[in-house]
């Protein structure tokens, strides 16, 4: 009975758009552990009755808020469906159960928005700060409005006059090739933790964005000017050659200037270094505001990595195995002689989780491993074979416990 009341309250919060991230995780877990038939004939039936009678206890909100919330629901359902490959949550006949929940919520939201007698829809442009923990991919347009993007969706983005700006096909957003405009108009694409997405700029440059990343770029580049974009997070660039218009990526204090090349750039707020790894072509690095033609700039050749230390303001260049830094774009988590505290940050971004290490001994443990498609539980179990620890997984948080168990050294087994 307690769980039933809690389910009812949390589901109403979901409909009201009042639910927090923690409460949403709790709701999904309660639904997941409930009997599907009882849930459909209980909670869902109750809310459907409210729809039919017009007794909708729904608080006012703007359309963008519910679009973001709905996308969170769909992403969480997608994660649950993926986990079914490892663990069966429901008997086979209930395979469409989660889809039914998403459809019901969508219907409730739809009735809410399109009933003009009870709803006042805001015409104010929606502004959403980039929140990498939101679980939602967002595209901020030049007028400040924000649209949510489903990785499986299809759409066209047009101007007020109906001219095509960009089109989405699944996991790729591609901007149309057109004559350059007389002023720069920017869009910003935000990728949350746990997601990746592809972007094709109007000049044909391909950008693969890693989780927790944000890129600001012109809808059209201007003739006679550099092609400049702004990155936070991590991305792999395959730049279209255009000698008359150098391509520049700004990452905080650093600019990376290229004509046509492939390179990986990583710049997360929690990292000390701005990392540039050159795969093909040539790039020149220089500080924002400096002249690229002075001796203060540094040039890379393929196979080199430049690390700009934001704390010490120093640049280190050395030869590396580029695959270590670019494997993520092909779906791999590749760790080579990395301390656990660095691996932990990568896992948090990749799975959109938080990991609290209370063990007091794992932070500086060094690991080498390669994973692909494994769950976070499978990855942690692999690490445990090298250095034993215990952990608790609750919702989107993992706590590594302080068990005072002696370290045991043995070769690590990975795929």
Low-confidence spans: pLDDT under 50, at least 5 residues? 56-63, 84-96, 109-129, 405-415
Report the span from N to C terminus.
Answer: 44 Å
The mean pLDDT is 78
Which fold name corresponds to the CATH topology of the largest domain?
Answer: Jelly Rolls
Q: Measured on Cα atoms, how large is the radius of gyration? A: 24 Å
Helix content bin:
25-40%
Please report which band the strand proportion falls in: under 5%, 5-15%, 15-25%, 25-35%, 35-45% or over 45%: 25-35%
List the helices and strands and how they pair.
Layout: H1 2-16, H2 21-33, H3 36-53, H4 63-83, H5 97-114, E1 137-140, E2 146-149, E3 154-158, E4 164-169, E5 172-175, E6 186-191, E7 197-200, E8 206-209, E9 213-218, E10 227-238, E11 247-251, E12 254-258, E13 262-267, E14 273-280, E15 283-287, E16 298-300, E17 304-309, E18 314-319, H6 322-326, E19 333-339, H7 340-351, E20 354-357, E21 366-371, H8 376-384, E22 391-394, E23 397-400
Parallel strand pairs: 5-7, 10-11, 20-23
Antiparallel strand pairs: 1-2, 1-6, 3-4, 4-5, 6-9, 7-8, 8-10, 9-10, 10-13, 11-12, 12-15, 13-14, 14-17, 15-16, 17-18, 19-21, 22-23
Helix pairs in contact: 1-2, 3-5, 4-5
Brief sketch in words of this structure:
Residues 332-400 form the Protein FecR C-terminal domain. By secondary structure, the chain is an alpha+beta fold.
Any overview of this molecule?
The structure is a single chain. The chain is of the alpha+beta class and 415 residues long. It folds into three domains: 2-114; 137-324, Sandwich (Jelly Rolls); 332-400, Phage tail protein beta-alpha-beta fold, CATH 3.55.50.30. The protein has eight helices and 23 strands. The protein has an 18-stranded mixed beta sheet that branches. Strand 9 (213-218) and strand 10 form a beta hairpin. Helix 1 (2-16) packs across helix 2 (21-33). The chain crosses the membrane at residues 95-114. Residues 193-283 form the FecR protein domain.
